[in-house]
User: What shape does this take?
Amino acid sequence: MTDLKNKILSAVNDDLENIEKALFDNLNPFADIITKVANHIMFSGGKRIRPLLTVLCAKICGYQGELDKTISTIFEYMHTASLMHDDLVDEATLRRGRPVIHAVWNNATAVLIGDFLLARTLSIALSYEKKELIQIIAEITESMTQGEILQLINKGKIDLSEEEYLKTIEKKTAILIRGACRTGAMIANATEPEEKALADYGYHLGMAFQMADDLLDYTSDSKDSGKKPGADLREGKLTLPVIHALEKARLKNKNDDVKAMEDTIKKRDGITAVDFMLFNNLLETYGGIEYTRRMAEEQVDQAKAALDRFPLSHEKNVLRDLADYTLLRKT
Amino acid sequence: MTDLKNKILSAVNDDLENIEKALFDNLNPFADIITKVANHIMFSGGKRIRPLLTVLCAKICGYQGELDKTISTIFEYMHTASLMHDDLVDEATLRRGRPVIHAVWNNATAVLIGDFLLARTLSIALSYEKKELIQIIAEITESMTQGEILQLINKGKIDLSEEEYLKTIEKKTAILIRGACRTGAMIANATEPEEKALADYGYHLGMAFQMADDLLDYTSDSKDSGKKPGADLREGKLTLPVIHALEKARLKNKNDDVKAMEDTIKKRDGITAVDFMLFNNLLETYGGIEYTRRMAEEQVDQAKAALDRFPLSHEKNVLRDLADYTLLRKT
Assistant: This one.
């Protein structure tokens, strides 16, 4: 596992350095507090997966210019802004192993700096001549917000369906990653089929990425992920492992197990370590973990298949490795 | 006073009805909770001054189409989104006489529906062919956020300068109103000098509007404004009446009065009705109220002067009346 991660990191080392520089340069001219707060979350070991995708997708289509780094920051800023607003919404306390913004500063700061980063993305996008980029940003913003609102409405909803879950993660995660990939193709003036293929790659990667993330909430420990395990459950956020296990238990008329799971879900912050262990056992029993992993694998396969039309290249290899890594990562 | 308000309202009755319809139509297709929450704040007696300005500025430049109503909603949505985020930041409890969103629903809802409205403005702007409109939106978003951040940083700052105050209200209020007016001219394909004149009108109107608003916090009663008087003071938000009075008292070495004012400011939520009355007396003594009114009047005069280049018309009269009304309004 660590091997694949190291392989990817050394393959994209220069790109990551350039992205880091662009992220910093595009924030630097602003008031002290903005830079300080934004840096707290921006430069605390994030994976830069979104801007990296833009850069790789531009290169796989033959792009050799420098614009891709600047434009790629848009997707990291949008992601960060969304984290800042979501952490507030979720009342999370840790993010990437560090206290979240609104715990260190306050709600106001989290809201306003998030707004500022969104405004920044628009200004950066305007420096680029294509209207399609603004369209992509508008679509992402509307979609992410709708995804978060769906998630909020559905909190604690004990009969959330797989379909509702898929719709939510599509809106809150996959559309952004699709946009990051599509934009790379756009910067390279790629053909329409190429742009569509990379958009598909991004969409399926995003779906896999979120499913894997939701899985980690049950399978990781906080040392690795920087988050308390079971955080989703404590917030009343039902994800695929739970949805599937509940559905299977209901189908088999295992009423005691259904009730046990539902009771734990309703406890929210009152969930103990023992509750969580028992709940996890039921997820295993009813195949929730296994099913989610399989669904994520299918998405990874579809992501890789979307790359078929591209000839072999350094970038194609990295994009394939990134898709595989989705399921291997521990954080 | 009421006479001028009635005169304006009857002069723009049809425009206001069309704007109301456009505001409603552009939100209607979205999920139930979005519409419900957005309606709570959108349709609770707001003055629609921003979209009205877009429509009037389009018409004064000869525009006769229908696009102005749709585009004008952008500025009401941006304003509403900013109110939702600001109320959260300010920890306000009343807005337009009704409980604020985050008191009725919760922080999450205020943040997300605000984000959604901002996303909506982008999508509406994209339906229009001019890139300048996106530029205006980007400028407004960045500016409003910076204004709010400045305000947040400066909370409780006892030696805030008039210059810092002017910079803040420019960013948080005047740039938006300027954008609303400039956009009207753009829709009408106005000449560059016409567009600039209307942008200037909007800028000065916005400055006057915010000064008058800050004045009302000391001179109105809550029955009229739907806000508790002294709210700014309780939040540690120093506005022009206070800044000027403090400056004058310091210049005259009236150390006891300076200390009395500073002590009250530091009390924040602990300010009693008697404290507030005594504080208000000191504002009068040192000319803070009078000075702010005079500064606002100057802005109104500059706003009206910017209209000089336009021949007499129904719209010109209304725009002039709106400027005058800034200083007469009680809410």
